[in-house]
Amino acid sequence: MRDCLEQAATKMDLDQLGEFVAIYWEIWNARNRYVFGRPNSNLEVLSSHVVKFVMNYRELREKTENPKVQHQALRRPPGAGMMKLNFDGGNVNMDGRGWGCAVRNPDGEILVTGVPQGEQFSSSLVEEAKACLKGLQVAKEYGYYSLVVEGDCLALIQRLQHQVIDDSILGFIVSDIL
Fold first, then answer.
1. What are φ and ψ of residue 120, in 5° steps?
2. For the chain, how many structural domains are there in total?
C-alpha cells in the first residue's frame, strides 16, 4: 500500500493525488466492511461513495483555497507553550458519521490532522463528543499534551467546562475527555 501511494505521489499532481487517495480510501473501507462481515458487493454503491467522497473533497478544497470571507481576525492563538486542538463531528451521507480534528501551533500551522469516517451516526452531540475524544487521542499519540481545545458545539463545550457527567453514552465520553 505504501509503495502504491509513494508511486502515485511521484506521478500525479496534487489534484489527481487527492482524488486517487479518496478512491483508495473508499476501496479500503469497502474491504474492511467485507472483512468484518458487512459486505457490500454492489459496485454501484461503492462508485457512488467514491464520487461523493471526491465531490466533498473538492468542495472542501475550494472553500479553503478560495474563502469568500476571511476569518483570520477571529483566530485566537493559544498561550505560550500551548497548541490548539480544533474538532468537529457530523453526519456523512445518510447514516454515516465523520469526525475531524487538527492540532495547530501558535502560528496557526497545522501539525497533525485526523478525519475518520464510519457508519452509524448517533446524534450530533454524541458525534461532537466522539470527535473531541478522537482529537485528544490523536494529539496524545503525537506527543501534544498542552492543548487549548476548541469546538463549535456549545452544548458539549458547556458540559466539559462544568464537568457534567451523567449516566449516558455522552456522559461516558465526556468522562473520557476530561
1. 65, 70
2. 2
Q: What is the pTM of this model?
A: 0.59
Whether residue 168 sits in one domain with residue 101: yes
More confident residue, 65 or 121: 121
What CATH number has the domain bearing residue 90? 3.30.420.10
Residue 136 · residue 177 · CB < 8 Å: yes
Q: What's residue 100's pLDDT?
A: 86
**Which of 123, 117, 116 shows the shortest CA–CA distance to 141?**
116
pLDDT single digits (tens) 76-109: 778 888 999 999 988 777 677 878 899 999 988 8
3-state DSSP assignment of residue 89: strand
Longest dimension (CA), the chain: 53
One-letter amino acid identity for 45?
A: V
Antiparallel, parallel or unpaired: β 147-150 and 96-104: unpaired
Q: Under a CB-based contact definition with an 8 Å cutoff, are residues 172 and 108 in contact?
A: no
SS3 of residue 16 by DSSP: helix
Mean pLDDT of 29-43: 69
